[in-house]
């Protein structure tokens, strides 16, 4: 057994080592380096000796080939590569890269790095280069480029992450065949925006032929990306790289004697990186390792072998290595020279020596470490004080030579000292530029700048910087932190104070604390004289809160006050006020008022330019909602499209989840169920990013309806219960949405009690407007009918109908008519039920609500069956099924199919047979029937004998009795295909 050498103080913790991030026992490096022979050195480092052939990965390579083939065939493929450090993830990505290139794909490769996790989009800066337009291009690609590589910083400030993500998506979406391969390595170290972007691209696959491949260490999985891949399902190729077998290790070491090979195979456990490391150790060391039962503890010695060269370097080489480690993944010779304080000549010579030792590659004038472990070791060996000064030099050099803002800020943040004004300025610049695209990082920089400078040094700018800091914290998901900072601004001067108050209210609203939000706004309004625009803005915020509370009166009051303050000459604000006015009117049942204000809001918004709409883009939410509820779904879609346009050009995406939720509701109405669900998922993801549990809950509330129609009531009830357990949504309006959907699910499941519990109760507790009153009465009517109270059911159904008709709302009228049809069916008034259901179909078709129309067809079909009209029933059910099918309402379709299958065997009479049978039942003789129908007696007799046969009876009385029971059971149908005639 070998003794382990004592660990130096401050050595790296074992966990770091186990994650493969570095070396622990510095003292051993010198030790093992002395044992290196030149031949052994060559095994490590593919640049010096040709890289060992790839072994033992046939199955995995075949999977990669299949993924490439999918993309070359025009499809989308995701590849996930994971495994322990050194297992060969990067190597496999390289193999994938070669295969993709051979298939003609444009390869875009990026790699995250351990020490640059604070650099926004670091992983993508390199990867997107082949896709992005040149420096001076215009348009979206250019905006993405500026944001991602941090040049032209001022412009970065206006671009937010939503726009960057969709911009990158569009770049890939437009990829021409044979397509693009986006390969991202070491995602366990990726910066947050890069991770979010990756998740976005996987969740919303571009339509162009695209391969997205990610690699990361199993121990540090990037959760969002892993989850997104899980959602892709079988189309994702998931590879967890196993250890190599002894035979593979043999192939890796063809020239090594068998006994030694066996030792290496055992000690390495089949990890190819360890194989390389161990192959540079002497036999006796190897034997000791193999005998050491605590292989885990020997890991450090194995890894030590990898980096010995660094400690063994001469002074100049070491400086180059340290400087390159500080400079980052792609360090130019210039930069390294400046950081190392060496002439460029010396750096070039040193870099060549490092290259010969297999430690770094030199690629287009840039130094790159061959393996992250080597960089980690150099970084560590450089020492903290040297690193501090080196980062300062790196920052200075990059600033002077046009380095990207985020990389400069990264170095500044590592070398700034208290009171360093220049450093604080850089951090503020970066914080302002990245507030919207990388808010968490921007908050970090701004917070740091604020701490570096004493409070008075920023002077007048401090409140504005604080406000931005708060905004970045809020957008980055730290709502609590944001609140804290905003409190500091309660006594700031205008306009910062009002803005801070408005933002504080916004933060409260995001958290679902409507009361708190209202308190803040009211206090600000009562606090003293404000310029009319500021006051108007606060009133609009208050109106929005009124709407969330379902307080139509307050909503209108605040909206009116706002309008009185600035009239229509501030079109964006006025549009917001009018949209909310419309919303409040509708909640109160003033449909005409709602129409009037909604139309005015649309006119104003149409006339307003996008930049003026930016701060008020949320207005399109209530406006689209109102248009939809007023039955103009096209207008709703148009408003949301406009909102998307405005958001695309804006910095702040905090309104995005809300707008997505409304869009999901509109898509649900239009029967686009899959896109609706996707939108709610996207909304929930964005809400999660900005830390808004409330927005998340809103998204879930809206998703319940499409969930019901696609997955059925059990899944929906479970989801609604989960949501209710969180106590959200806290705002009444969205809570109501969730409750109505839950009531509907209960009804679908046949749970009339729980359904009635939700929709009963005093009338005052529900808004009076038809969009809430009608569904409530509708659900009540149907639930009561199911539980046998046909009288009550009829009353509610009729009331729903008259409210909807009076308001002239086709969608609500359709639902109400559907409820009346249902009640009639339960009352066995089949003809009436069928006629009403057909009317409901017409109204719902007019309202562009295809699922609801199909539901009514379904109901009509059932009524026709019961009424004995097979042909019409068949037709209605077929069309209902087509409707469900076309819109992916899988659960509804399965109900209908079950329904059809369960329909008891029918007795089908032709129209003539039915007519003659009825006449027999009314007591006529065959002769009388013959004369009445202008037939011969013989013909009547032959018809009757067929009826007897079909019913299995022998006498006229038995036939009459049988027809009565068959009609009652809904089994007797008339085959309308048969014509009445002899
Ligand atoms: N199947 C293999 N056949 C031959 N060599 C391999 C194989 N797999 C990996 N290697 C070599 O082993 C070394 C480590 O592999 P690689 O860098 O790909 O590991 P990794 O999984 O990316 O590690 P990390 O998590 O540290 O990034 C490289 O030199 C690589 O060329
Ligand atoms: Mg790797």
Task: Show the helix and strand layout.
Layout: H1 14-18, H2 26-34, H3 38-43, H4 58-72, E1 76-83, H5 89-102, E2 106-111, H6 122-127, H7 140-149, H8 153-156, H9 161-173, E3 180-185, H10 192-203, E4 210-217, H11 223-232, E5 236-240, H12 246-252, H13 258-268, H14 272-278, H15 283-291, H16 295-311, H17 315-327, E6 331-332, H18 333-340, H19 344-356, E7 360-363, E8 366-369, H20 372-382, H21 384-400, H22 405-415, H23 421-433, H24 439-452, H25 461-475, H26 479-488, H27 496-510, H28 514-526, H29 532-549, H30 552-566, H31 571-588, H32 591-607, H33 610-613, H34 620-629, H35 633-648, H36 656-669, H37 673-689, H38 693-711, H39 713-725, H40 732-748, H41 752-759, H42 770-786, H43 790-807, H44 810-826, H45 830-846, H46 850-866, H47 870-886, H48 890-902, E9 907-910, H49 911-921, H50 926-932, H51 937-951, H52 956-968, E10 972-975
Parallel strand pairs: 1-4, 1-5, 2-3, 3-4, 9-10
Antiparallel strand pairs: 6-8, 7-8
The protein binds adenosine-5'-triphosphate and magnesium ion (MG).
Residues 89-90, 185-186 line the site of magnesium ion.
| Helix/strand class | mainly alpha
Provide the CATH topology of the domain at 58-243. Rossmann fold
Gyration radius (Cα, Å) is 36 Å
Q: In the CATH classification, which architecture of the domain at 58-243 applies?
A: 3-Layer(aba) Sandwich
Number of helices, counting only DSSP H or I runs of 4 residues or more: 52
Shape: flat
Distance between the termini: 107 Å
Q: What share of residues is helical?
A: 55-70%
- What's the number of extended β-strand segments? 10
Relevant CATH superfamily of the domain at 58-243 = P-loop containing nucleotide triphosphate hydrolases
Give start-end ranges of low-pLDDT stretches: 1-49, 977-982
Mean pLDDT across all amino acids: 86
Order of strands across the main sheet: 2-3-4-1-5
């Amino acid at each position: 057994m070998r003794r382990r050498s004592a660990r130096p103080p401050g050595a790296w913790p074992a966990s770091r080592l186990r994650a493969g991030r570095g070396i622990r026992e510095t003292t051993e490096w010198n030790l093992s380096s002395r044992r290196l022979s030149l031949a052994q050195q060559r095994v490590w480092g593919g640049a010096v000796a040709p890289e060992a052939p790839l072994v033992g990965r046939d199955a995995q390579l075949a999977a990669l080939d299949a993924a490439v083939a999918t993309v070359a065939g025009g499809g989308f493929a995701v590849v996930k590569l994971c495994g322990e450090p050194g297992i060969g993830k990067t190597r496999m990505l390289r193999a994938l890269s070669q295969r993709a290139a051979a298939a003609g794909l444009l390869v875009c490769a990026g790699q995250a790095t351990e020490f640059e996790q604070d650099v926004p989009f670091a992983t993508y800066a390199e990867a997107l280069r082949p896709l992005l337009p040149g420096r001076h291009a215009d348009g979206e690609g250019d905006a993405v480029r500026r944001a991602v590589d941090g040049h032209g910083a001022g412009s970065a400030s206006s671009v937010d992450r939503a726009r960057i993500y969709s911009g990158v998506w569009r770049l890939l979406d437009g990829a021409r065949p044979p397509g693009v391969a986006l390969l991202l390595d070491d995602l366990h170290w990726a910066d947050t925006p890069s991770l979010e972007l990756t998740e976005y691209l996987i969740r919303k696959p571009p339509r162009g032929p695209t391969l997205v491949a990610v690699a990361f260490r199993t121990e540090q999985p990037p959760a969002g990306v892993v989850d997104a891949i899980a959602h892709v399902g079988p189309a994702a190729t998931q590879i967890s790289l196993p250890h190599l077998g002894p035979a593979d290790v043999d192939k890796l070491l063809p020239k090594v004697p068998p006994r030694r090979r066996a030792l290496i195979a055992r000690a390495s456990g089949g990890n190819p990186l360890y194989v390389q490391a161990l192959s540079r150790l002497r036999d006796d060391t190897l034997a000791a390792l193999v005998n050491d039962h605590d292989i885990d503890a020997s890991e450090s010695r194995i890894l030590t072998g990898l980096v010995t060269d660094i400690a063994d370097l001469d002074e100049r080489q070491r400086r180059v290595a340290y400087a390159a480690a500080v400079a980052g993944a792609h360090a130019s010779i210039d930069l390294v020279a400046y950081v190392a304080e060496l002439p460029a000549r010396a750096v070039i010579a040193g870099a060549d020596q490092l290259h010969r030792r297999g430690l770094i590659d030199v690629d287009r004038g840039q130094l790159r470490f061959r393996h992250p472990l080597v960089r980690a070791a150099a970084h560590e060996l450089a020492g903290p004080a040297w690193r501090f000064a080196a980062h300062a030099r790196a920052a200075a050099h990059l600033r002077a030579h046009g380095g990207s803002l985020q990389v400069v800020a990264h170095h500044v943040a590592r070398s700034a000292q208290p009171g360093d004004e220049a450093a604080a300025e850089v951090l503020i610049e970066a914080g302002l530029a990245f507030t919207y695209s990388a808010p968490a990082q921007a908050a970090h920089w701004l917070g740091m700048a604020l701490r570096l400078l004493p409070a008075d040094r920023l002077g007048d700018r401090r409140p504005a910087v604080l406000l931005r800091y708060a905004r970045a914290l809020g957008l980055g998901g730290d709502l609590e932190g944001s609140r804290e900072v905003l409190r500091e601004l309660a006594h700031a001067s205008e306009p910062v104070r009002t803005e801070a108050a408005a933002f504080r209210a916004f933060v409260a609203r995001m958290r679902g604390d409507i009361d708190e939000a209202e308190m803040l706004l009211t206090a600000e309004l009562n606090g003293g004289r404000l310029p009319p625009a500021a006051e108007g803005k606060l009133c609009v915020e208050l109106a929005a809160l009124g709407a969330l509370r379902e307080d139509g009166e307050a909503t209108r009051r605040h909206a009116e006050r706002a309008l009185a303050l600035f009239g229509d000459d501030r079109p964006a604000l006025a549009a917001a006020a009018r949209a909310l006015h419309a919303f409040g009117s509708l909640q109160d049942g003033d449909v005409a008022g709602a129409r009037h204000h909604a139309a005015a809001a649309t006119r104003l918004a149409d006339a307003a330019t996008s930049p003026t709409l930016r701060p008020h883009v949320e207005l399109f939410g209530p406006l689209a909602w109102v248009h939809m509820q007023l039955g103009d779904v096209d207008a709703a879609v148009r408003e949301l499209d406009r909102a998307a346009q405005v958001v695309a050009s804006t910095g702040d995406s905090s309104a995005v989840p809300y707008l997505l939720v409304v869009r999901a509701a509109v898509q649900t109405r239009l029967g686009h169920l899959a896109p609706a669900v996707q939108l709610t998922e996207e909304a929930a993801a964005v809400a999660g990013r900005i830390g808004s549990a409330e927005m998340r809950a809103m998204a879930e509330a809206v998703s319940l309806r499409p969930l019901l129609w696609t997955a059925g009531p059990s899944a929906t009830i479970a989801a609604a219960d989960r949501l209710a357990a969180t106590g959200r949504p806290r705002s009444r309006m969205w809570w109501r949405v969730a409750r109505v959907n839950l009531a509907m699910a209960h009804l679908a499941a046949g749970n009339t009690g729980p359904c009635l519990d939700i929709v009963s109760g005093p009338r005052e507790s529900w808004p009076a407007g038809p969009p809430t009153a009608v569904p409530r009465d509708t659900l009540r009517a149907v639930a009561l009918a199911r539980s046998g109270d046909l009288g009550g059911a009829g009353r509610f159904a009729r009331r729903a109908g008259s409210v909807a008709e009076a308001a002239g709302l086709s969608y609500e009228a359709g639902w109400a008519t559907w409820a009346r049809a249902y009640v009639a069916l339960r009352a066995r008034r089949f003809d009436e039920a069928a006629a009403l259901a057909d009317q409901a179909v017409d109204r719902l078709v007019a309202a562009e609500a295809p699922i609801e129309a199909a539901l009514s067809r379904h109901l009509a079909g059932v009524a026709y069956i019961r009424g004995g009209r097979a042909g019409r029933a068949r037709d209605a059910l077929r069309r209902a099924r087509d409707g469900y099918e076309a819109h992916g309402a899988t659960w509804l379709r399965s109900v209908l199919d079950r329904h059809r299958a369960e329909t008891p065997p029918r007795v089908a009479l032709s129209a003539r047979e039915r007519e003659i049978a009825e006449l027999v039942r009314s007591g006529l003789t065959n002769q009388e029937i013959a004369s009445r129908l202008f037939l011969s007696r013989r013909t009547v007799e032959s018809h009757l004998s067929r009826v007897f046969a079909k019913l299995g009876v022998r006498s006229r009385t038995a036939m009459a009795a049988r027809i009565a029971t068959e009609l009652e059971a809904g089994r007797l149908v008339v085959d309308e295909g048969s014509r009445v005639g002899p």
